[in-house]
Amino acid sequence: MTSKICIKCHVNQVISNFHKDKIQNDGYRTVCKTCRKDIRRYHYVKNRDKELDQMKCWRESHPDYMQDYMRNWRENQKDDRCNSCE
Length: 86
Ligand SMILES: [Zn+2]
Known about the structure:
- Helices cover 60% and strands 16% of the residues.
- By secondary structure, the protein is an alpha+beta fold.
- It has one domain (3-85).
- A hairpin with a 6-residue loop joins strand 1 (3-5) and strand 2.
- It is elongated.
- Bound molecules: zinc ion (ZN).
- Zinc ion (ZN) is lined by residues 6, 8-9, 11, 31-32, 34-35.
């Protein structure tokens, strides 16, 4: 087998344009490398937006936690400095 049709863009391409995949009968992925890159980028952008949204939502519903966290962080910084001075 030297070529294969991508199930996403439906273009017959050389087999080197497909990633290897042991699960597939022919040993190659059903989606070409170019389409796979697009899919990965799409999921990355989609998940990044979702994660940012979730973080924002969580912070807004836990304002005290963030204040405590920042206060503890600042105190720890102070402690670190004092320890290194001694
Ligand atoms: Zn493709």
